[in-house]
Write a structure and sequence with these properties.
The protein is an alpha/beta fold. It contains nine helices and 15 strands. The chain has helices spanning 3-10, 20-36, 61-71, 103-117, 142-149, 152-166, 202-210, 228-238, 268-272; strands at residues 42-45, 51-54, 79-82, 122-124, 172-175, 179-182, 212-213, 225-226, 242-245, 254-256, 261-263, 279-283, 296-300, 305-308, 311-312. Strands 1-5-6-9-11-10-15 form a seven-stranded mixed beta sheet. A hairpin with a 4-residue loop joins β10 and β11. α1 (3-10) crosses α2, α1 (3-10) packs across α4 and α2 runs parallel beside α6. The protein binds manganese (II) ion. Manganese (II) ion binds next to loops. Residues 56, 85, 127-128, 183, 247 line the site of manganese (II) ion.
């Protein structure tokens, strides 16, 4: 790896103020590593060590690097999985926070450098923002951020290289102990068999990267709503019991449908907007995981990852009732629930 890839891995701030050639160096090293060891469309993830999962980070490299440090505090390191949407600062807040100009650039370079360096332990899945050349996202800001930082002709070239690398990342992950990891949701019903998945299949991308549970469906003009019955059928078909996903912040930190779908986000963007906080989900290294009740959820308070109760929403099909537990517990336990 280049000096710059080393530097950005130890400190995502390393690229701030550096010339465009520094980012280019990092991305070249990442491209070589991905070429030597291409990612599969579905990442099969062993369950020999605990897995730390981040949700949508949208350029929040301080939270992401804190999550990485937490996963790598042990020897051997625990696995780290990103659920996508590493870029795009300004989804719901304009203007971009002045404190984090270029956050998407530093966050993406940092994560890609790690995935290139230790692909056994750092696995980045794609979000809809990492598929924006195939299924466009309104007003994507990675290019805007690059233009703010680098000369015009460099910015477009760097954006193209970032997108090339994103398009080589897996669309989803499956742990040996039965957790399906994905940005948005389920594949279309005629595409449940991962052996048939192709990264160029737009209907598959739409299902996995853009979909939402029906209880929080908003019309994004793309993606579709799925319910508890489809979740059960899909999970049964792939030998899993739980989905951990990001994408829709409405239920961040809460689990739907008898603990079968947990949504998390890992960005100060959502913390400022009041949606769940900066979250990290730990999948234990036991032989089977049957429910989100077995996931340990933590929230970043600026200096530590504090245990946080997972709120379990009703299992029923039909209209949503009140959550079975709410709030910020002081005790470090995962909620039981009914
Ligand atoms: Mn998303």
């Amino acid at each position: 790896m280049s000096d710059w890839a080393d530097q950005v891995r130890s400190d995502p701030k390393a690229l701030i103020g550096a010339p465009a050639s520094a980012v280019r160096d990092v991305l070249e090293e990442v491209a070589e590593a991905f070429g030597r060891r291409p990612w599969p469309v579905l990442a099969e993830i062993p369950s020999d060590v605990p897995l730390q999962v981040i949700g949508d980070s949208h350029g929040d490299w301080p939270s992401v690097s804190a999550a990485m440090a937490f996963a790598r505090r042990a020897t051997p390191p625990q696995r780290f999985v990103g659920l996508g949407d590493y870029i795009h600062r300004a989804t719901r807040a304009e203007p971009d926070p002045a404190a984090l100009p270029g956050g998407s650039v530093w966050n993406a370079a940092y994560l890609l450098a790690w995935a290139a360096y230790d692909p056994d332990h750092v696995i980045l899945l794609r979000g809809n923002h990492e598929a924006s050349r195939q299924l466009p996202v309104p007003g994507p800001t990675l290019l805007r951020e690059l233009r703010r930082i680098y000369p015009r002709e460099e910015a477009l070239r760097l954006w193209d290289r970032f997108m090339d690398l994103f398009e080589r990342l897996p669309l989803a992950g499956r742990t040996a102990n039965g957790v399906f990891l994905v940005h948005g949701g389920l594949p279309p019903p005629d595409r449940y068999d991962p052996a048939q998945w192709k990264a160029t299949d737009l209907a598959l991308l739409e299902g996995l990267l853009w979909s939402d549970p029906d209880v929080e469906y908003e019309d994004r003009a793309i993606g579709f709503a799925y319910g508890p019955r489809e979740v059960r059928e899909f999970l049964n078909s792939i030998g899993c019991r739980v989905i951990i996903r990001g994408h829709g912040p409405i239920h961040s930190g809460r689990a739907l449908w008898n603990g079968s779908v947990l949504t998390i986000h890992t960005s100060d963007l959502f913390l400022r907007l009041g949606d769940g906080g900066i979250l990290l989900a730990e999948v234990p290294n036991r032989s089977r995981v049957e429910s989100a009740r077995e996931i340990t959820l933590r929230a970043w308070d600026g200096s530590t990852w504090r245990p946080r109760t997972i709120t379990l929403l009703p299992s029923g099909e039909g209209p949503m009732g009140p959550p079975s537990s709410v709030g910020f517990p002081s005790s470090p336990t995962v909620a039981g629930g009914p």
